[in-house]
Write a structure and sequence with these properties.
Order of helices and strands: HEEHHHEEHHHHEEEEHEEHEEHH
Structural class: alpha+beta
Largest sheet: 5 strands, antiparallel
Strand order of the largest sheet: 8-7-6-5-9
Distance between the termini: 163 Å
Number of helices: 12
């Protein structure tokens, strides 16, 4: 067989066609071109996908899902281009008709919500807005976390940070979903009205929870009370362990942990022993007999106060507090550096006063009652009880 005859035979097979549709005729050559370009597209698509992923990684995109999406988009775009080229060369579909048909897919209506027809363009718009909202929520969470760490430093509670992050995420996502649905043309007025009624009912039912939640936010951002602060609660000193959104955990001097609603700390007057500094004044009351030399007593109290560990920049204070029924009352004050040791410091001060008084022969007064009887009454009692009484 000559070369011309081989070419003629090959072209006759190449142009051998069959009817695919009433207006579409497909030849064997077109099928071969389609298979060839599809293979080339898949091969080049893999390379383009890896190349796009590498470029995105160089742009400091670290999210694996985002990198996979970029690689898949580049790969599919290459395959789609090669398929379109094969259809054009095989005279199956002209490229203009292919592009028009491709974009007509985006206007195809899938279903209707109310009076709004939902097309592929509508769905893609909603997806893009929600995706952008998700990115915006991540940026807001990062900014909130950085702000909390700058304001609270090492005192920040990780549990509280996670709660704030979750609340911020849900708030931003709800706003984004509402914007996406409104952009899609879906009327949300009835849904928002029902949601508002539900929110009012829920707020009435969970009023105490809402109060504690708002109080928790006030405590977190106002920082009048912070972790490790020592405050007075119900007349007892307690140490703040952690501040949450709903409640605060405190520890008593007996090492008992209590869960206190945040509303209690915001609504009531709370004494914070460590608000500006850690120094706390300890006062001890002591009464001496009226026969005592008050100057000696004052010197002894000063000496006793100096024996106790106290703040170096504050001198003890001794005050004559009053004249009682059975004693002359003094008040001794010292300042300590650790308010958590107030009971121990008060005990040590009392012990020092006791031994100092012992050394100086000072009598600590106790309640006394003198009874004076008239002569007639005493004689009558003696007669009643007998001559031996």
């Amino acid at each position: 067989m000559t070369f011309d005859a081989f070419v003629e035979r090959f072209l006759s097979i190449w142009n051998l066609s069959f009817q695919l549709r009433e207006d579409v005729t497909v030849s064997i050559g077109a099928v071969i071109l389609f298979v060839f370009f599809l293979s080339v597209g898949r091969l080049l698509g893999g390379r383009f996908g890896r190349w796009a992923r590498h470029i995105a990684a160089m742009r400091q995109i670290e999210n694996e899902r985002a990198l996979d999406a970029i690689a898949s988009l580049a790969r599919n775009a290459c395959v789609l281009f090669c398929v379109g080229l094969s259809l054009e060369l095989g005279h199956i579909v002209h490229i203009e008709d292919f592009i028009d048909g491709f974009f007509n897919i985006f206007n195809y209506g899938f279903f209707t919500v109310g009076k709004q027809q939902i097309t592929l363009t509508t769905l893609l718009t909603v997806v893009v807005i929600i995706w952008g909202t998700n990115m915006a929520s991540r940026l807001a969470i990062a900014a909130a976390r950085q702000t909390m760490y700058l304001q609270m430093g090492s005192d920040v509670d990780e549990g509280t940070v996670r709660v704030v992050e979750r609340l911020l995420y849900y708030a931003v996502m709800i706003v984004g979903i509402i914007i996406a649905l409104e952009t899609a043309g879906i009327d949300l007025s009835a849904l928002l009205a029902a949601g508002a009624a539900f929110a009012v009912g829920l707020s009435l039912a969970l009023q105490s929870v809402a109060q504690n939640f708002i109080s928790g936010l006030i405590l977190l951002f106002e920082r009048a009370i912070t972790p490790n602060d020592i405050v007075e609660l119900d007349g007892r000193p307690v140490r703040v362990i952690s501040i949450g959104i709903r409640s605060t955990v405190v520890r008593t001097l007996a090492d008992e942990e209590q869960i206190v609603p945040n509303y209690t700390l915001v609504e009531n007057a709370i004494t914070n022993y460590t608000f500006t500094d850690n120094q706390l004044r300890i006062k001890v009351m002591v009464g001496v007999a009226y026969e005592s030399d008050l100057k000696v007593v004052e010197k002894a109290l000063h000496a006793a106060a100096r024996q106790v560990k106290r703040a170096a920049d504050r001198k003890p204070v001794v005050l004559l507090n009053g004249f009682g029924a059975s004693s002359v009352d003094f008040e001794v004050s010292i300042w300590i550096e650790d308010p958590w040791q107030l009971r121990r410091a008060a005990s040590e001060l009392r012990m020092a006063i006791w031994w100092t008084f012992k050394e100086n022969d000072i009598v600590i007064a106790f309640p006394q009652l003198d009874v004076h009887l008239d002569t007639e009454i005493s004689e009558g009692l003696r007669l009643v009880n007998g001559p031996d009484s």
